Amino acid sequence: MRKLELLAPAKDFTTAVDAINCGADAVYIGAGKFGARHSATNPIEDIARVAEYAHRYGVKVYATLNTLLFDHELEEAKTQALALIDAGVDALIVQDMAYCRMDLPIELHASTQTNCVTPEKVQFFEEVGFARAILERSLSKAEIAEIRKATTIELEAFVHGAICVSQSGRCFFSRSTSERSGNRGECSQPCRLEYDLCNDKGEIIIKSKHLLSVRDLDLSARLGEMIDLGITSFKIEGRLKDRTYVRNIVSLYRQLLDREIAKRNDVERSSVGRSTIEFEPNASRSFTRGAGEYFFDGKCRGVASFDTPKAMGEKIGKIVKADRRGIILNRKHDLATGDGVCFIANGSLVGTNVVGVEGERVQLNRYDGVEVGVALFRNYNRLFSQAVERSKVRRTIEVDLLLKFSKNNITLTATDETGCEGLATTPYTFEAVRDVAKGEEALRRQLSRSGDTIFGVRNIEIENIGFVPMSLIAELRREVFELLEKERINRFSMREKEPFAEKQDIKYPTDTLTPQDNVTNRLAREFYTDHGVAEIAEGLDCRNTTMGEQVVISDYCIRREIGECLLERPRLKGDLFLVRGTKKYRLCFDCKKCQMKVIDTPLSN
Questions:
Q1: What's the confidence (pLDDT) of residue 35?
Q2: In terms of residue numbers, what domain contains 568?
Q3: Which of 279, 315, 449, 576 is deepest in the core (most CB within 10 A)?
């Protein structure tokens, strides 16, 4: 049976618990430093708490150490990695190959920032010793199939959330505008800003649009295909997202993935426990820049959001009447006071909120830009958000209880759905019960109460029933559940882990590494040299400037997006540039690879 994993983001301990309770099979979380989300850091002590809570359910915890390291940081990075291992994490997600030279007794996962885009690259990671490769978001199902055909390593793929316009790990756009680098966990997201698209004469073709801002990913309808492609881990993006987002999206994907697993007899969940929630998950009601499947079916148009990089949410309808008393839409809706709504006016996003609803008329806080024919979206659903936030979310592991009366003691055994067992015994002098049926009913009622434990009672068996105070049974039940929970944690934590063991005789797929290949310290340089790389350029993040260098390598293409593909007789000839203030970037189109490269260029050129 192939085990499948729903992998959720965890901004902090509270969010991690939410993700686990809603059905995540694994969570990924950042420590104090060296993670790709500088604003999502956690003390080692909190990560240890996450691991202890997660391991009760057989849920794994992955620590993100996926930034580049400089020489002076190597010792500190190793110290933090070892502390995370001691805290109980199950794997480290890394970008920098320096971690391969630190003798870490834990499995390593090759971050998507290691550029997992070709069968040859992923095969190298497998053969050199990595346990998992995290695939680039822009890969199509055909490309994933080729990687799967060439490898047996675990494959992790994103299924939901934001998309970087650049191939992960190959983006230096933020670094080109400031000291902040995405490869160092401090991306300033310049790709979400407005730019002018200009020709080589300086003429503006498209003015002030978010030309590099792509819509968010939503592969919720493609999970079955991804299972059949050989994906092991289904990853939700969002370590900066709030707990409402995590609760909603994890719950949705748990339901969808379970349905796909139920259709197959060769796959199963990688953790245990049934999640109970009190709301109906709906992806359109959490933060989204507009759902899309990006390039899962191959390169295509319509993946960008030129008007806004912000969340627009769910479309409610078109305005058919508008005046100072309110607006009327072309279809029924459930808008309520306190909802946030938005629309596009004069090419820009306008946001406001609902202050009243009277019948079909909706009253807004402001009416600037409101016109008949405008499409209205809801980007904050107050009632839904409250329902998610207030929902009692619980995850329970089913157990069978066996209560046995003997002459001198009572024994209660709890066996969970994985065969893990807890046993509690108390001295007792047997006394026959007068009404067996009534006594058994009372015992079953008492034993079925699992309270706020992680267990739910499935079956109860009672042997040789005798009279006993219910308070004694309650104490036995409490004790056996505590013992079973400790046994579950111990059994999971004590399982054999495969430490990373670098295999030295594996040849790297290329002989040359460019500045975009991110070699920024001596250990990484030694790693690549030992694996046959002859020429290694200093990583771009070590340099004072990115001028003249590729700062974005993308499978997204502005020409394709605006209908000006060079392979389709475009009207636009010559070089194209992105311009914003004092920054200018030349666009280079590699039609053979169907890629776009963004070159940092002097404004005078």
A1: 85
A2: 549-605
A3: 576
